[in-house]
Amino acid sequence: MTGLDEQLRQLIAETCKHAPTSVERRKGFTQIIRLIQKSRKLWQESTLDYEDAWQHTMTFLYLNLCEATTAAQYDPARASVITWLNVYLKGRLKDYYLKQQKQQNRSISIDIPLCENINLIDTLEAPPDIPPMLEEVRHWAQTDVTGELRNSHVRGRPDITCQLLILSRLPPETNWEQLAHELGVAVSTLSSFYERNCRKLLRNFARSQGYIE
After folding, report:
1. Pick the residue with more confidence: 107 or 24?
2. In this structure, how many other beta carbons lie within 10 angstroms of the beta carbon of residue 46?
3. How many CA atoms lie within 13 A of 187 on its CB side?
4. Per-residue pLDDT tens digits for 14-35
5. What pTM does this model have?
6. How far apart are the first and last CA of the chain?
């Protein structure tokens, strides 16, 4: 067992002593995420699906680290927490890839280069308890104190804002195809705008809260 594994093991044990809704559990969970991020041992790849998969992985961690909520509880005797998370994260990325391939095989659109960049995500059922991290992101997006989310919108469509898209993509998220249909725009318009504008704002907030470095 490495020094990092032992540090995480002790931090997890201490965190899980506290009630799920307690401030201590929340602080411990945030410390665990920071330590995992700092280690750079969590699987990383440069794909459009990655941050969505990462978000689901953090939800999975919160719900099943100390109690079995949506899956079996984490067992430190079987694997390190990073190994456990990497298995889940890679599994979600594989699911997204297979879903994307299935969608592409069904498509008869001539706009294949754009379709290959679509971020296709399964619409998941909302977990019974939303992690504090997601609650904070949702509150930040809903309140938009600075107005930066409402003021950033698709050209010619002031109704399609970063506030709308970020809230729509939080679990249980609406996929790009459904959003595009509801808003009457191309999927590529939404996904490219989100990548260029909204993801930067989301990452800046996550960095300010210490979720990422």
Report:
1. 24
2. 5
3. 16
4. 999 998 888 898 889 889 998 9
5. 0.55
6. 25
Which two structure tokens, joined as six digits, stand for 116?
Answer: 């290959």
* Residue closest to 174 by CA, chosen among 155, 157, 191: 191
Nearest to 130, CA basis, from 70, 34, 59: 59
Read off the tokens for 4: 């990092």
Residue 137 lies in a domain: yes
29 within a domain of the structure (yes/no): yes
CA 163/CA 148 separation, integer angstroms: 9
Residue 213, domain member (yes or no): no
Give the domain extent around 91.
3-208
Of the pLDDT bands very low, low, confident and very high (cuts 50, 70, 90), residue 105 is low
Residue 159's H or E segment, with its range, is strand 157-161
Strand pairing report for 157-161 and 153-154? antiparallel
91 contacts 97 by C-beta, under 8 angstroms: no
pLDDT, tens digit, 9 for 90 and up, residues 165-192 = 988 887 767 788 888 888 899 988 998 8
3-state secondary structure of 120: coil
Q: Provide the domain count of the chain.
A: 1
Q: How many residues does the chain have?
A: 213
CB 45 within 8 A of CB 115: no
